[in-house]
Every structure is written in structure tokens, then in C-alpha cells.
Amino acid sequence: MKSLFKNSLKATALVGAFGMLWSGMASAIDVYLAAGRFVQTINGEAVPMWGYMEYDVNNPPTACSAVTNNPALQAPGPEIVTNAGDTVTVHLLNCIPNLDNEVADRRTSIMMPGQPMPTVNDSNPGGGANQTGPVFYGANPNFAGRMRSQVPETRRLAATRPNAVTYTFTGVREGTFIYHSGTHMQVQVQMGLSGPLTVCPASSPYNAAQGRCASGGNRPYAGARTGYFREKSLFYTEIDPAIHIAVDRGCYGPDEDAGACSAANQSLRTSSTIKYAPKYVMINGEAFDGSKLDLQSEISLPNANRRILLRVRSTGNRYHSIACKFCAGARAIAEDGYLYTFNNGGGDTVFERMQEVFLVSPMQTRDLYVTNVDPDDGGPLVRQLLLDLDRFGEIPPVAGVITPAVAVGP
Question: Residue 163 belongs to what domain range?
């Protein structure tokens, strides 16, 4: 099966004349993403998907034929890794198919909940500079006056519109986040337009060699009480093939807007996602399968008292839980990029919630610590959970940290 999250967009600081790298100065990070259609086979079923791919700024796609069904497309998209205070500019090309009459051309956008709203620049004809704010439907018998997008949109790539639209997020804050389309989200996020964003604190900037927020105590947040040894990611998504096929064949939306739906496909018509019924729960882009929890398989675990940070994200519409029965030292430390705190009478104090079951809500992120007290008999759940992560693939920059027959640390 294709391993997703194979690309990680790692932040690269701009080095000044004196070579001050990660000196506490904010950096400007450029990310180049194209959105397009591809087909993913899930348990033998071909499901049309939308996803993101990284493209070469020196050789960008000039036509959507170079993006559609490109093997680099993935859902969720590649991970963006940067540091707190950085300015992140996403150069977005839109190649999602235009198969319905919802708008003249099917548009998309990108946003990062929990981060500043972007400033958008479109240098194409008909575009504009320094755009902000939502986009509303114009004259439309069903949607006139309703909001279509939370941020300015990117029109489809064409010969007359060859340039990427830039989305600039200034001064990003630390934590575990998601980026996703801000346009017609109930459809576009469901189709696959989302991905992970990781922001290390300025005091513990990202270290590519170690695959984590390093230095400064190896803390994922500046205010975290403790550091960690390695990190892993779980990205939950859901797929309702009926919705995907209806959208792909132009049969989604009210009757007036599904004009591309052919006579042969009339049975596929659906007017909204209200009857959304996911058939597949995906973890890191792969369908959940009980066989992936085979506890008989061997896996090397870190030595005693090594903390693993789990960055958990979900863009589904359902609740998911991570069971921690028999787990040794499982703690929740943050939610949606905010550390858990309580007021002790003298001000807020950071604390860690020890739990056996962690609930992940729709469009939520959580940061969890799992500690292996004893690699031989200290934590069956730790073994199960890490095996689960290994079988569902890796999200760089921590690929290969925990794999069968590979030792982890001294």
C-alpha cells in the first residue's frame, strides 16, 4: 500500500550574513502545494480523492494534467513543520476538477485554524493583492448571500491563470495544528484537502536530524513541564465513498447545481452531506484494519522511562478514541495547540491529565505523552499503540523511529 505522508515540508531558516541559524529571529518559510484529484484503492474499492502534493518552485505545473493523478498527491497532505514566530507563505495551485455548476470554476483555498488568518495575494488577471476575509455566493437561486469560503479563494489553474495564489500566515504560534481548505469545507475537507501543521516553540526549535522540537529541554511547548524523546503522529480522517463518487461525477448539490450529472448517474445524486455515513476510518491515510493490531509481531520499544509524544489530529465528523488500557503513564498535555492549565490560586499552572481513554473530537488536535516504564513487561498498551502507529505508516520528519527490528535510542 502506498505510504502517505512521504513528504514533509521542513522549515528552513533564512541564514543571515553572520550565519545566525535558529537564533530566536523569526524566519520566512515558503511552502509550495498543488491540490488535485487522484484515486485511492481502499480494501479493493477505488475511491476518487482530492489531495495535496508539494511541487518544485523552479519547475511548477503549468497545466492541471501535470497534477491530476500525480503519484505525489496524498490525503492528508504533506506535513508542514516550522517554528513559533515564523511567517509561513503557502503558494497554492488549484487543480481540483470542475465537474459541477456550483461556481464558474471550482475554487479552493487554505487556512490554518488556531493561527492568524492569512493575507492572500493573487497576481493572476482578475485577482488582487492583500485580500482578507470571507467569500460569499453571488447570484444563485440556492445560496445567494451565503458564505462559501472563510478566506479568499484560488481559481483553477489555466493558461490565463498560471500563477500560484499565496496565503501568508504571519507569526504562527507553537503547537499541533491542521491546515485544510477554507472553501466549501463540508465537501473539500471530506474529499481529502487537509494536512498536518507542527509548530515548535522558539525555545525548542525543530531539529531535522532528531525529528523533533529539540534543545530547550526538548519540549513541544515552551510552557510544558517535561520534554520528550521521540514523537509520532496519528491523523484521523473518514471517507464516505458515496459522497466522493457523487462529487467526482458532478452529482453533488441541489438539482440546479448538479447539471453535470449524466442520465446514467442520476442514482448518485445527493444534495448535501447531511446523510454522510463514513465507510472507512483512515489513520495516516490508510484504512483502519484490525489486523494492524497484531500483538504477536515484534517491535523494538524505547528503553525504560522514554517519553513518546503523540500528535493526534482529526478532520472527520465522528468522535474517535484511543484506548489506554494497561498503558503506562499516558497523559494528555494539550488540546488544539493549548496546554492544559489550572488556577492554583496564584495563577495558571500547567498540568498533565493522566487518562486511560483519550477522546478525539471532530476537527480537533491533542498532544499525548506515553511513557514506556519497562520495555519487557511495563506496558502492553504502549506496545499495542506503538505497533498501531508503525503499521499505519509514518509522518516524516520522524519516519523510521519505531519500526520492527530497529532499536530506539541507547
Answer: 8-203
